[in-house]
């Protein structure tokens, strides 16, 4: 990135200010508020090259410009508002039921009958089952004792994708001249996308075939997100394949890591866990929660927000400036790629007092004038290019955490030491998290 500050000793200013340039809240706000109608993400040339090579469409994550705006306008009316996704509560709760049963099965395999090893593996399968239930309107069997072969293949493709995530997304494409010498990263990248697209195409085609049969018979066509897209055809079939693929990709590890950190933090802070349980018990009285109930569970919402503040799955965000900007005294020319580090803003004392402390209650408004600044913690992004699947992810997390707290007291296993985060493209636990799930009396 090239920066210049008129009438100033550039080297001195860089030494003094560069470390602050991308993490000060006001600077991040300035960049994001300066976005046009079609904000541009950072470098994703490797994604585009793969799609051009295979003749695939871009999806909402990888598309830019008018193409992106068209897709966004179609999807935002279906999944962007909390009241739109509450309709999925029964489907998600059915997956949560399987999650609870899977917890019981896994802990029964340990000597103490309470420990679940590597909790993220369980939450990964829950997140995949949950988001696929909404996207594909079908169950994949990820929480069964024996996972179906097709789902196993998708899981392998997804793991392969994230194993090469840093080199193929954030660091840009593997240079073409280097690929004959070091072919493995690019081959694995393409292979993982092949697997992801194949999985989506199978499920989309299956639902399309079911719809066509109903149309021939003159039967009423009912369904959810995918059915709507296939019936209205506001997108062509290739665009539907691409968006289903990218939304599933984006909705698995992101949700699973947040659930892993949330339960770990609850286990490390039993007093806070008890406070949240008491709120859940007071509001629900033991009944199964729905999406509508979440509005009356501020500590559950605060738990997810505080977890994402401490451990944002995407610790930074990319933008390409669409106009010349002056930020923090620097002249930023149009077309500059910026990295916005909201991990740093979320840990800034000026934005969040005692930022290292786990305090879900900091997100509860004390009165009508009280607010937590939006740009202090923006794990789902901001504005028109914010995460399209945010409300789906929040529904999955809120319902899962609520039911887990209803059923279990969560404790840290003796096999788990202090868990630190590491970056692997995404911010993830540095070691497996092992937790004890003790039945509530």
UniProtKB/TrEMBL annotation:
<feature type="binding site" description="axial binding residue">
    <location>
        <position position="387"/>
    </location>
    <ligand>
        <name>heme</name>
    </ligand>
</feature>
<dbReference type="GO" id="GO:0008203">
    <property type="term" value="P:cholesterol metabolic process"/>
</dbReference>
<dbReference type="GO" id="GO:0071375">
    <property type="term" value="P:cellular response to peptide hormone stimulus"/>
</dbReference>
<keyword id="KW-0479">Metal-binding</keyword>
<dbReference type="GO" id="GO:0020037">
    <property type="term" value="F:heme binding"/>
</dbReference>
<dbReference type="GO" id="GO:0034650">
    <property type="term" value="P:cortisol metabolic process"/>
</dbReference>
<keyword id="KW-0503">Monooxygenase</keyword>
<dbReference type="InterPro" id="IPR017972">
    <property type="entry name" value="Cyt_P450_CS"/>
</dbReference>
<keyword id="KW-0349">Heme</keyword>
<protein>
    <submittedName>
        <fullName>Cytochrome P450 27C1</fullName>
    </submittedName>
</protein>
<dbReference type="GO" id="GO:0005506">
    <property type="term" value="F:iron ion binding"/>
</dbReference>
<keyword id="KW-0472">Membrane</keyword>
<dbReference type="InterPro" id="IPR050479">
    <property type="entry name" value="CYP11_CYP27_families"/>
</dbReference>
<keyword id="KW-0560">Oxidoreductase</keyword>
<dbReference type="InterPro" id="IPR002401">
    <property type="entry name" value="Cyt_P450_E_grp-I"/>
</dbReference>
<comment type="similarity">
    <text>Belongs to the cytochrome P450 family.</text>
</comment>
<dbReference type="Pfam" id="PF00067">
    <property type="entry name" value="p450"/>
</dbReference>
<dbReference type="GO" id="GO:0006700">
    <property type="term" value="P:C21-steroid hormone biosynthetic process"/>
</dbReference>
<keyword id="KW-0408">Iron</keyword>
<dbReference type="GO" id="GO:0005743">
    <property type="term" value="C:mitochondrial inner membrane"/>
</dbReference>
<dbReference type="InterPro" id="IPR001128">
    <property type="entry name" value="Cyt_P450"/>
</dbReference>
<dbReference type="InterPro" id="IPR036396">
    <property type="entry name" value="Cyt_P450_sf"/>
</dbReference>
<dbReference type="GO" id="GO:0004497">
    <property type="term" value="F:monooxygenase activity"/>
</dbReference>
<dbReference type="GO" id="GO:0016705">
    <property type="term" value="F:oxidoreductase activity, acting on paired donors, with incorporation or reduction of molecular oxygen"/>
</dbReference>
<dbReference type="GO" id="GO:0006704">
    <property type="term" value="P:glucocorticoid biosynthetic process"/>
</dbReference>
